[in-house]
Amino acid sequence: MPDIDTMPAGAVLNAEPPPACSYCGDEITDPEERADPRRDPNDDEVMCDDCYQEHFEFTCCWCKEYASTDVQHEMLVIEDADNEMAEYRKGVYRVVDSPYWSDGMIECNLVPSSLEWIAELPDGLHVDYYSCGHLCAECQGKIEAAVKAAEKGGE
Ligand SMILES: [Zn+2]
Ligand SMILES: [Zn+2]
């Protein structure tokens, strides 16, 4: 009979210890998550949902759905013009060069020459918490369509 005090927590109930997230090290205890855990696309290591979302997904600032970071850095939404973004016009920007931001000591700074203003903020688009936001592929498509329609109308 092993000394119960020296056994890791959970070992008494579960023969298999829960897998640990390769990013934060937390054990993945949620049964659903555990049955089919997220994996790091780079090395196939197990990840918890939180870390996966943090590293490989973002929340679209328009439809509020999670989206893959593959498309994240193609457009930038700037809403809050009251603070350090005052020099930027509100709206949707196309990222035309990379990098479009540089890390500052306190916050990241945008690089104006990498950003091209393409559209007004659509109705219903509000960036929560941050002064900038990103769009999922679907919402980017809606912006592209609006830009095209505006170009036609202006001819
Ligand atoms: Zn994690
Ligand atoms: Zn969206």
Describe this structure in words.
The protein is α+β, with helices and mostly antiparallel strands. The chain has helices spanning 31-35, 49-56, 137-153, and strands at 38-39, 46-47, 57-59, 66-68, 75-78, 91-95, 101-103, 108-110, 115-119, 132-133. It has two domains: 14-56, no CATH class; 60-155, no CATH class. The chain has a four-stranded antiparallel β-sheet, with helices on one face. The protein starts with 30 loop residues before the first helix and ends with a helix. One zinc ion binds at residues 21, 23-24, 26, 47-48, 50-51.
Uncertain stretches: none
H and E string:
HEEHEEEEEEEEH
Estimated share of beta-strand residues: 15-25%
Radius of gyration (CA) equals 22 Å
Which whole number gives the mean pLDDT?
A: 84
Helix content: 10-25%
The total count of helices amounts to 3
Secondary-structure content class: alpha+beta
Bound compounds, each kind once, are: zinc ion
